[in-house]
Amino acid sequence: MLKTFFEENNIKYLENESLKKHTTFKVGGEAKFIALPSDCEQAVALLSFLKANDIKYYILGKGSNVIFRDEGFDGVIVKTANLQKIEYIDDETVYAGAGVQLSTLCKNLQEHSLKGLEFCYGIPGNVGGGLFMNAGAYGGEICSAVCEVEYIDENCEVKKIGVQDCDFSYRHSVFQGKDWFILGCKFKLTKGDSGQILSFMEDIMQRRVSKQPLDKPSAGSSFKRPVGYFAAALIEECGLKGCSIGGAQVSEKHSGFIINKGDATCADIVALAEHVEKVVLEKTGVTIEKEMIIV
C-alpha cells in the first residue's frame, strides 16, 4: 500500500533503511520506510495519506540532534532533505526550504552580502530543525532573523505564522508542541560587506574545529545550558571528561559533547547521558537536561 502510494505520487522513498545513515550520531536500527517529499504538494499528500491510514510517522531533518533507538522505527520517517528551495523575495528577504542546510544558507547569504545568520555557519542541521530547536551559537539564535514560517498544520492545511507567534526561547519553539510540518521560512536580513561576513564565518568555523570533536559522530552539544551555568564546565568539574559506556564517550576535547567512538549503540548513548545527568545533580545540585531527541 505504501509503496504504491509513493510511486503513484512520485515521492522518493527508501525501504528497510539503516537510520545510522540519516543521523550525525550514526546509531539506530532500521526504518521501515523513509519518504522524501520534494515540494509542498507532495508533503501535503503524504501527511494526509499517513494520517488517514493511521500510519505511524516521524518528521526528520538533517538528523543532527536526533538519535533513533537500536530497534529502529516501524513506520515512515518523513525526511525534509529534498525541500531545497532558496528564493530571494527582495534585497534583504529570502525564503529557505526546511531541507536547506544552515551552512549552505549562510554561504548563500554571504555571497549576496547579507548578514544576520552567519553565527549558524557550521551548525550541522538544516532550516527546519533549526527553527524547531531555535538553534543558536556564539551569542546568536535563528529566531533573530525569522520573519514568517510556512508549515502544514495538523489538518494538513498549509499555513503561515509570524515570528511573534512562534514562541521562541532558548532551544524552544511553538513547533515542539504541535503536530506541524515545517516547509520553510522567510528570513529578514540586513546588507553587509561580503568579505567581512566571510571572515566572521571562517572565524566561527575555526573556533568550532579547535574546540569541538568534529572528527567523531555526535549530535553536537549534548546538554542544554542550565541557567547560570555551563553544562560542559559542570561535567568537567565532576570528573566526567572521557567517561565511557560501551562505544559512547564524554569527549575529551569538549565535555559538553557525547561522541560515538565508532561502535556505540543508542542504548550506550542514553545510558551515558543519564549517568552524566545523575552525577552532576548529585555533586553540584544542578540539573542538566539532554538536548538531543531520542526516538
Concise description?
The protein is α+β, with helices and mostly antiparallel strands and about 300 residues long.
The whole-angstrom Rg is 19 Å
The count of helical stretches stands at: 7
- Strand arrangement in the largest pleated sheet: 6-7-13-11-12
The stretches of 5 or more residues where confidence is low (pLDDT under 50) are: none
Write the CATH architecture name of the largest domain. 2-Layer Sandwich
Which structural category fits the helices and strands? alpha+beta
* CATH C-level of the largest domain: Alpha Beta
Helix percent reads 25-40%
How are helices and strands ordered from N to C?
HEEHEEEEEHEHEEEEEEHHEEEHE
* Principal-axis shape: globular
Tally of separate domains: 3
Distance between the termini: 25 Å
